[in-house]
């Protein structure tokens, strides 16, 4: 198989749908080879794989809450792609557990699952990607965080905490990995039109959520993918440690 000299090997977690699918398509459209990771949605991941332009893409599976499975999945992706230049930690869960309406058992389950998938998953995937990124002579890690890390998540406090943790993780790793030519960037979207946000966006509060932005809408998955693509580019290397908002000015911070 003939590969473009600038074709990178890219692992995108949670690429079976939503934002991850858009990220996989964006990398493939610029000539990169993509490992399409999924958790439970095999058929949908196969459909994403089939729609990617270019060649050399592979499918990999792991429950991100399973540290062993994550490690094997990263190695499998690198083996299938012939190395690894970019890791995008995109997969995540958004499980409601309103503090005053949730029993203690459900509260604990929500916290454990959310932190396991949204924070420990990316930490483990990054750890296991490091030997491959270093062997490739450097590269990039991009984490998909959330506006909720800054704005708060009253019905999903574990989610907000997991994303705040992911922001801090990305900043620490930016410092640790720059000497190895690896940049670490973070994207913090507000609401995005995907299945994760469907209940909120299609519910009685949907219009109020759209009105949070002066554009009067939420983000499209492609708009998040565009920021991820930039953060993973060599041109963005000196922006390592940055957290880019993609929220249509629905929440401004300085
Ligand atoms: N949508 C929003 O409004 C919004 C806003 C801010 C940030 N984000 C963040 O953007 C990222 C993508 O969200 P999305 O809206 O595209 O969500 P989505 O449509 O619900 O897709 C979630 C993806 O994560 C994967 N995933 C979930 N749990 C997993 C697990 N235990 N193991 C492996 N994979 C797992 C799913 O894979 P399978 O289906 O194959 O299991 C799926 O590919 C998440 O990190 C989310 O927190 C989303």
Automatic annotation (TrEMBL):
Keywords: Oxidoreductase
SMART domains (alphabetical): PKS_KR (SM00822)
GO molecular function, one term: oxidoreductase activity
Domain of life of the organism encoding this protein: Bacteria
One Pfam family recorded for the sequence: adh_short_C2
Residue ranges of every copy of the Ketoreductase domain listed in the record: 8-190
Family: Belongs to the short-chain dehydrogenases/reductases (SDR) family.
Protein name, UniProt field: SDR family oxidoreductase
Organism: Modestobacter muralis
């Amino acid at each position: 198989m003939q590969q473009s000299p600038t074709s990178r090997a890219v692992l995108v977690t949670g690429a079976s749908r939503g934002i991850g699918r858009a990220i996989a398509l964006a990398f493939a459209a610029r000539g990169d080879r993509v490992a399409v990771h999924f958790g439970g949605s095999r058929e949908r991941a196969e459909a994403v794989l089939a729609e990617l332009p270019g060649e050399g893409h592979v499918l990999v599976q792991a429950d991100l809450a399973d540290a062993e499975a994550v490690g094997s999945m990263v190695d499998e992706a690198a083996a299938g792609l012939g190395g690894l230049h970019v890791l995008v930690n995109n997969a995540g869960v958004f499980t409601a557990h309103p503090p005053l309406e949730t029993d203690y058992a459900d509260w604990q389950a929500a916290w454990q699952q959310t932190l396991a998938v949204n924070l420990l998953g990316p930490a483990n995937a990054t750890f296991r990607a490091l030997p491959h990124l270093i062997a490739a002579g450097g590269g990039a890690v991009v984490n998909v965080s959330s506006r909720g890390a800054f704005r708060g998540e009253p019905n999903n406090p574990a989610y907000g905490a997991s994303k705040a943790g992911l922001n801090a993780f990305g900043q620490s790793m930016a410092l640790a990995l720059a000497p190895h030519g690896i940049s670490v960037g973070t994207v913090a979207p507000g609401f995005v039109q995907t299945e994760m946000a469907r209940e909120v966006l299609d519910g009685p509060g949907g219009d109020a959520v759209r009105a949070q932005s002066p554009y009067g809408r939420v983000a499209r998955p492609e708009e998040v993918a565009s920021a991820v693509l930039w953060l993973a580019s060599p041109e963005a290397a000196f922006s390592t440690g940055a957290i880019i908002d993609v929220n249509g000015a629905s929440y401004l911070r300085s």
